[in-house]
């Protein structure tokens, strides 16, 4: 194809010669008047197609399918074919055509975009068929010999003036044919309704642009819609044209990749044969699909829904393609309301064009300019169902008569699709297309000599517009229109893809309204942000608010499995009961509640998020904070006798060790790891040994000091401050050596306990070596018993504040806690064993803090009169414990 185009453009360089040669080829298909010399004349069959035209400096071509079909006629092949007879006048398309005229006249009237230039038009009816569209395109490229010599014309030749651009056609099938033909001459074409993705191929259609988004984006929107609502069993019905077949095929491929199954894929025949459409109805019933996409133009969709309504097929959630999602021909007749209420579909964005309604209602056959409009009589007679008495090609069928009308009837008194401007979507596309041409012409006229975009930086000749030059400027168009929408074309000639998601809802008056329930932005890169749906306002078919379910097979209940159906998609299966046999789950797994699958067991450990963990952390911090308060009290009163008595430095060291005891309990909370397991036991062992060593040093000093019989005895010298520190260091280093050997030989490590009859795994710290763990605890116990024994001996020493008695009570509590700990630890399950150990650490720490330091703080703060050397040195032996 590329080679042929190069040959065509290179070997046959002039547009005139190309047209003559093409006319010769086309005359083989479309009979022309014979001519002895085709190189001198461009003579085809005289113009037999009705045309609506208005002269101007620049003429824009227009193609609109004002009728829905062409009556088939028998061809004798012995004479010229009779004129084609178009039937079924389309009010909606007629409004589109009038919108083009409105936009052109608006540009001419304002004169801002194209000053001193008048834009005209030449519009044909393509009758919704490709061959009529091709005939009209050929007429636009030049027909009979012109009899006029214009003061300012686009071309000057023996052929009719050809237009530099065509706006249209609506249907994708017609646009495909026209685009191939116009592409030969590089005449730009802007379609307002053709959405076939195939038209984005610039190799095949180099001069095609459109203000209608490609079906690639529409299909993407429909796929995201199906995915959003979880439908896995969807039917697809397509029109028999490029739009329907192309879009439906892309949709089927895309949703299949998401795991959605296509229940059926059927085509609506163009001849609308009842038998074939009834077969589609039968397939719908048999499939069981509740969600069906109809990807077709409104005429094909209407043929389908006529049979659906006659067959009383209800309960279907219809998804509408853009071509009929807001079609009044389907939403206006009440006969469709019971089947189409709740329909959901995507529609291009709309706009309210000021002044358009008044412009539409201006039409009247009695106006002077109405005589040049070949479509007005058919329109008028169809609107008022009357006869103007004018002979027209499609006025009435044989045997059918209509009442006469005067032509003075008022369009404002009639409510129909033509005058309804509440949903200006395709009309807005036509409006944008006309203005895009105007902006391209403005850019062409504004070119500065020597700075142009063409050969040797030249500009286009404003008096002789070459279509390929106009195409260049059209591709560069980018402007913000009066509706705040940015108008531009991408490299494929496509506009930005923005869709409204509409829902067909019945209003209190019994009429269908199109309610916006969401948006789709095809230009957004993030898939999750492309589609927005306001689900709360959706009314589904049957006025239901619950999302319809469309699946081939429901989820199998517990105790059953999926069994695939032969020759069916994967979404279709039967639920078959399992054989009565049980499989044992692996050690780390547990049976679910339905006993149908093995699920991982939950892991259990003392966590910082547990209520128990949070409580223990709070108690630990309270103990640490209380110890810090005692340190502060002692530091502020460090010169008083009660603090200085029996080595105040030893008291501060004891308080430091108690703080470590409180904080080491935190290492037992949280998920066990290699390092936390090693830290928790060693920190616990060393902290408590340091604490008891300090108490042991204080007890020895008290006992030796009061039992030295001779004054000036040297025994007390062996238990001075240095000796006390040495005792503490030796006792602590011994525990450090035990812990070091433990960590080197068999360190503690995380371990999982998996009870077979429980649905959890206990994650705890294994001691590694039970002997080493026993040595650590035994050493602490040995020092505690020795300290208790010495304190017991010194309990009745004669002083007013006997610290030995306080140490005795603290050691009794300490030993009682740890003796009770052993059976409680062994019998506690899971994480509660760790809770028991942490509780023992905190309880013994609070016992030491309370028994040793609480009385001293009481005396310092509340009984300062007793905090004297005289009171402390008084010898008042106690007979109490």
Automatic annotation (TrEMBL):
Pfam families membership: 7tm_3, ANF_receptor
GO molecular function: G protein-coupled receptor activity
InterPro entries, A to Z: ANF_lig-bd_rcpt (IPR001828), GPCR_3 (IPR000337), GPCR_3_9-Cys_sf (IPR038550), GPCR_3_C (IPR017978), GPCR_3_Ca_sens_rcpt-rel (IPR000068), GPCR_3_vmron_rcpt_2 (IPR004073), Peripla_BP_I (IPR028082)
Keywords associated with the record: Cell membrane, G-protein coupled receptor, Glycoprotein, Membrane, Receptor, Signal, Transducer, Transmembrane, Transmembrane helix
Segments crossing the lipid bilayer: 612-636, 648-670, 682-706, 727-749, 769-794, 806-826, 838-861
Subcellular localization(s) per the UniProt record: Cell membrane
Keyword Hydrolase: no
First-listed, main subcellular location of the protein, grouped into a coarse class: membrane
Signal peptide: 1-34
Name the record gives this protein: Extracellular calcium-sensing receptor-like
Coiled-coil annotated residue ranges, if any: none
Residue ranges of domain G-protein coupled receptors family 3 profile in the record: 612-876
GO cellular component, as recorded: plasma membrane
UniProt superkingdom: Eukaryota
Recorded topology in the membrane: Multi-pass membrane protein
């Amino acid at each position: 194809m590329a080679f042929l185009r190069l040959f065509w453009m290179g070997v046959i360089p002039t547009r005139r010669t190309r047209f003559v040669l093409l006319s010769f080829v086309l005359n083989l298909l479309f009979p022309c008047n014979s001519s002895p010399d085709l190189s001198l004349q461009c003579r085809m069959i005289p113009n037999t197609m009705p045309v609506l035209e208005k002269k101007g400096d620049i003429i824009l071509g227009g193609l609109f399918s004002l009728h829905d079909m062409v009556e088939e006629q028998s061809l004798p092949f012995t004479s010229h074919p009779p004129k084609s007879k178009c039937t079924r006048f389309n009010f909606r398309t007629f409004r589109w055509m009038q919108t083009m005229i409105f936009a052109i006249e608006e540009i001419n009237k304002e004169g801002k975009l194209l000053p001193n230039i008048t834009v005209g038009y030449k519009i044909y009816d393509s009758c919704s068929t490709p061959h009529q569209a091709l005939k009209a395109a050929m007429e636009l490229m030049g027909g009979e010999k012109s009899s006029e010599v214009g003061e300012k014309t686009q071309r000057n030749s023996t052929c009719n003036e050809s237009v530099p651009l065509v706006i249209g056609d609506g249907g994708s099938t017609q646009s495909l044919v026209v685009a191939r033909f116009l592409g030969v001459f590089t005449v730009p074409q802007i379609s307002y309704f053709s959405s076939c993705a195939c038209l984005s191929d610039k190799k095949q259609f180099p001069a095609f642009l459109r203000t209608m988004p490609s079906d690639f984006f529409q299909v993407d929107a429909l796929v995201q819609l199906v995915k959003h609502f979880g439908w896995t069993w969807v039917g697809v019905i397509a029109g028999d044209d490029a739009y329907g077949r192309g879009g439906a095929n892309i949709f089927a491929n895309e949703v299949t990749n998401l795991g959605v199954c296509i229940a059926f894929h059927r085509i609506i025949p163009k001849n609308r044969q009842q038998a074939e459409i009834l077969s589609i109805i039968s397939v719908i019933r048999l499939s069981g699909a509740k969600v069906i996409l109809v990807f077709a133009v409104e005429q094909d969709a209407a043929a389908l829904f006529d049979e659906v309504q006659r067959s009383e097929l209800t309960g279907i959630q219809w998804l509408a393609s853009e071509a009929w999602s807001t079609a009044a021909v389907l939403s206006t007749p009440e006969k469709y309301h019971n089947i189409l209420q709740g329909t959901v579909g995507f529609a291009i964005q709309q706009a309210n064009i000021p002044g358009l309604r008044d412009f539409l209602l201006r039409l009247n056959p009695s106006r002077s300019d109405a005589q040049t409009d070949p479509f007005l009589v058919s329109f008028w007679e169809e609107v008022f169902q009357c006869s103007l008495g004018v002979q027209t090609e499609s006025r009435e069928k044989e045997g059918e008569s209509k009442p006469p009308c005067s032509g003075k009837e008022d369009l404002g008194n009639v409510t129909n699709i033509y005058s309804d401007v509440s949903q200006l979507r395709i009309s807005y596309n036509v409006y944008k297309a006309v203005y895009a041409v105007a902006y391209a012409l403005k850019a062409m006229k504004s070119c500065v000599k020597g700075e142009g975009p063409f050969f040797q930086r030249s500009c286009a000749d404003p008096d002789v517009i070459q279509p390929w030059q106009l195409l260049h400027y059209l591709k560069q168009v980018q402007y913000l229109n009066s509706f705040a929408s940015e108008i531009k074309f991408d490299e494929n000639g496509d506009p930005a893809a923005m869709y409204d998601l509409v829902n067909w809802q019945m209003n209190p008056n019994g009429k269908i309204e199109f309610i916006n329930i969401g948006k789709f932005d095809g230009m957004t890169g993030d898939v999750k942000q492309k589609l927005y749906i306001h689900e709360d306002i959706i009314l589904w078919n049957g006025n239901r608010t619950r999302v319809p379910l469309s699946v081939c097979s429901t989820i199998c209940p517990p105790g059953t499995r999926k069994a695939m159906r032969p020759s069916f998609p994967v979404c279709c299966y039967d639920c078959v009961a399992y054989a009565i046999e049980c499989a044992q789950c692996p050690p780390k797994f547990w049976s679910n509640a339905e006993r149908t699958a093995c699920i991982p067991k939950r892991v259990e450990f003392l966590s910082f998020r547990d209520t128990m963990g949070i409580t223990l952390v709070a108690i630990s911090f309270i103990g640490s904070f209380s110890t810090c308060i005692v340190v502060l009290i002692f530091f502020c009163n460090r010169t008083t006798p009660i603090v200085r008595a029996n080595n105040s430095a030893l008291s501060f060291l004891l308080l430091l060790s108690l703080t470590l005891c409180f904080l080491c309990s935190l290492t037992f909370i949280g998920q066990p790891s290699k390092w936390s397991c090693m830290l928790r036991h060693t920190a616990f062992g060393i902290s408590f040994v340091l604490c008891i060593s300090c108490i042991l040093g204080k007890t020895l000093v008290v006992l030796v000091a009061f039992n030295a019989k001779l004054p000036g005895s040297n025994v007390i010298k062996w238990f001075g401050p240095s000796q006390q520190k040495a005792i503490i260091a030796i006792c602590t280093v011994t525990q450090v050596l035990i812990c070091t050997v433990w960590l080197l030989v068999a360190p503690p490590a995380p371990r999982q306990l998996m009870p077979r009859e429980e649905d959890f795994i206990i994650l705890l710290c294994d001691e590694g070596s039970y002997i080493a763990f026993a040595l650590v605890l035994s050493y602490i116990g040995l020092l505690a018993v020795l300290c208790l024994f010495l304190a017991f001996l010194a309990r009745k020493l004669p002083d007013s504040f006997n610290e030995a008695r306080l140490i005795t009570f603290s050691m009794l509590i300490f030993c009682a806690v740890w003796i009770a700990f052993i059976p409680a630890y062994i019998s506690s399950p899971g994480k509660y064993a760790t809770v028991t150990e942490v509780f023992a650490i905190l309880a013994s720490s609070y016992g030491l803090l309370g028994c040793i330091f609480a009385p001293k703080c009481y005396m310092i703060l509340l009984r300062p009169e007793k905090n004297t050397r005289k009171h402390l040195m008084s010898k008042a032996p106690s007979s109490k414990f």
